[in-house]
Amino acid sequence: METEKQRAKQLVVGILAHVDSGKTTLSEAMLYRSGTIRKLGRVDHKDAFLDTDALEKARGITIFSKQALLTAGETAITLLDTPGHVDFSTETERTLQVLDYAVLVISGTDGVQSHTETLWRLLRRYHIPTFVFINKMDLPGPGKEKLLEQLNHRLGEGFVDFGADEDTRNEALAVCDERLMEAVLERGTLTPEELIPAIARRHVFPCWFGAALKLEGVDALLAGLDTYTRPAPALDAFGAKVFKLSQDEQGTRLTWLRVTGGTLKVKAQLTGESDGGPWAEKANQLRLYSGVKYTLAEEVGPGQVCAVTGLTQAHPGEGLGAERDSDLPVLKPVLSYQVLLPEGADIHAALGKLHRLEEEEPQLHVVWNETLGEIHVQLMGEVQLEVLKSLLAERYGLEVEFGPGGILYKETITEAMEGVGHYEPLRHYAEVHLKLEPLPAGSGMQFAADCREEVLDKNWQRLVLTHLEEKQHLGVLIGAPLTDVKITLIAGRAHLKHTEGGDFRQATYRAVRQGLMMANQIGKTQLLEPWYTFRLEVPAENLGRAMNDIQRMEGSFDPPETSADGQTATLTGKAPAATMRSYPMEVVSYTRGRGRVSLTLEGYRPCHNAQEVIETVGYEPEHDLDNPADSVFCAHGAGFVVPWEQVRSHMHVDSGWGKSKPAETDAVAASARQAGRQRRAAAYRATLEEDAELLKIFEQTYGPIKRDPLAAFRPVQKKERPDFAAEQWTLAPEYLLVDGYNIIFAWDELNALSKESLDAARKKLADILCNYQGFKKCVVILVFDAYRVPGSPGSIEQYHNIHIVYTKEAETADMFIEHVTHEIGKDRRVRVATSDGMEQIIILGHGALRVSARMFHEEVKEVEKEIKRYLQGEV
What we know:
Blueprint lengths: L1 H7 L1 E8 L5 H11 L20 H6 L6 E7 L2 E7 L7 H8 L4 E7 L6 H12 L4 E6 L8 H11 L4 E3 L4 H11 L1 H10 L4 H9 L4 E5 L8 H10 L11 E9 L5 E9 L2 E2 L3 E6 L2 E6 L2 E6 L2 E4 L2 E2 L4 E5 L9 E3 L13 E6 L6 H14 L4 E5 L4 E6 L2 H15 L4 E2 L3 E2 L2 E4 L3 E7 L6 E9 L6 E5 L8 H12 L15 E10 L6 H21 L3 E15 L3 H10 L3 E2 L3 E2 L5 E9 H4 L2 H8 L5 E11 L3 H8 L13 E5 L2 E5 L23 H24 L1 H12 L31 E6 H7 L1 H9 L1 H19 L2 E6 L10 E5 L2 E5 L6 H12 L4 E5 L3 H9 L3 E3 L1 H19 L4
Parallel strand pairs: 1-3, 1-4, 4-5, 5-7, 6-7, 26-27, 35-36, 35-39, 36-38, 39-40
Antiparallel strand pairs: 2-3, 8-9, 8-17, 9-16, 10-15, 11-12, 13-14, 13-16, 18-20, 18-21, 18-22, 19-20, 23-28, 24-25, 25-27, 28-31, 28-32, 29-31, 30-31, 33-34, 37-38
Keywords: Antibiotic resistance, Elongation factor, GTP-binding, Nucleotide-binding, Protein biosynthesis
Protein name: Translation elongation factor G
Pfam families: EFG_C (PF00679), EFG_III (PF14492), EFG_IV (PF03764), GTP_EFTU (PF00009), NYN_YacP (PF05991)
């Protein structure tokens, strides 16, 4: 009976913070007050329960995520303490993917810091409900009101002091959530049952103020975690998410996972897929860790975290059973160092040891340069470098040094370009045409297809997309990875007899490369470098020196802020990582230890000294035999190579895309644009004229539609959803599926509206799509995720001229969209508007076309402009 009770409220809670905010001290206090430990340890005394590694004790920071078990009231909590230093933020990101809730620790003396904002963006990305503990309130600082104001200003609305009196608290809560406002207006009070869903929706972020070192506010936080949380719904079938690899003191490999459904029993056989193919292994032991000690379990249920022995193939981010794989981490390494081995060391043995560490450390990438016979490591910062050196010495007795660090650059393009790849040695054939177009900074790589099946069969199109996704494409300036580029398949050709799968791989790679070379030829390629966001605090007398330093380092900063006593000045801004990564030591030197700087990776921007870097690297793209841009054609029974700049004159397919055509004169271009507007206007008029026919079709499918001019202002009447049948969508030629919440939170205007009222944001999006459908003449299916709504039966509703789907309990919008694209993507044109990375890959596999939230926003805005022009009589 006790086991059932614990499982009914079993939570995984992560604790996160900017370094030196007192995160580990708070973890220690929570364990002590809950009765898990009898002695209160301290970081500065090097006896903290969770800082068990020698390097952690020496540096006084958390480097590896740790687990502890505690009980708060009726809630069994698995507490995951994550690293606070920015160098280990990838470890934190992996941990986030298995959390039910998070506790974000803020320093009461420092407030919101640069890395705090990075952590908040990650919490928002993974939709983690968050509690906030403002620590060190026993020390001088800005005070509660200023700190709350800063939280709401820097991180967003919804932060409420749960230690305030009830009336004050309820007044603040009413502003955060529409349903809470209705309850406050109706009764004047709020119950925990009403607050729990608001917190789960991330509309409310409960805050407690205290001092963990003195145990102040800790009991209130524990009570809040017990009172205002609910367990995540569990899958019926077994599912688990792997989030970390490590090894124990005996060298046994531990695979850390969180069970999300069903039950994991000891000796159960688990299956998955790694780079080497499918694997099947037994879970020999199930260890429930608390600090360095563990107990063995016979079985582990939903909501529990355990370390499993016996698994050698599983990797972080992998989903087991019914659980899907995680999205790729957002944070990537930005620095690169050469590994210098001791004289006489076996370089290949050392490479194997580094690869074993790479499995455990998600922020470490090991690169073997076979040409030079060198090992390079890519990581986040110099503290991580010290940890790597220590691990190699401690675990393998390998004493290494590192060469001077280098920056990990990336490349992109600044103008759309067509790339052509042809591969036709004797008895082989494939030609591929790709459109390469730039994306906003931080978008990464996106792949799509916009090619008719009569031009290239769907199976070949899918193969091209697979080849685009399977490789890291390199730029042509210095051979750095390509980023912020969308690559779309627009044309191609196969041979009935001679085409093999490998032919399209060769043609696809060459098409990407040829397009990049064409872009570089006209100066439309760009070198990118990582930039830091910094916060620099120095004595007032050093402010002038600091401002000159930032300008010297090609950085920028906001107007300086001076402390109330005039003793300290603060600069915040941005600067290239190449110029600033060694600056923290310089600050300590010239301020005599009184200054400090915190650096957080902001993203990639155009390189400040691109020409110098390009000349230094000396990369020659035409001599890169692993990434050829030339194509292979066949004549007189033999293949011959055509240089990349001449491929267009030999190609067999004309995609009709712009770069193969002569430039239009302004008059011709204006005429073409006018003709396009007329065609779109004609399509819009045709839609209006066919309303009667469309109405008839819809009524045949869904029954009579009752016209009500006020219907748009009333809640939609839900009806029980029937089982999905693909036949009900077969009447229209093109389908657009929209992931509703994904779009709402991606579009700024809808996201802002959702903070006031999610219902209003849903209605606004539905109205926008109604106008869009009227112009584009397609079937629009708007999908809203209700999988966390207990007992939701799901429904399919008619809203004017679009369909709105509310998913069933335990069915996400992703799952519904995947099912629909699988059913109707075989013989119909289907597009899906979403920004979900995993969903993008799945729907491409089902033959659908993905439209990012940003691109769809631009498309909708263009449609609205065209409708406005038509209504104003401009076309």
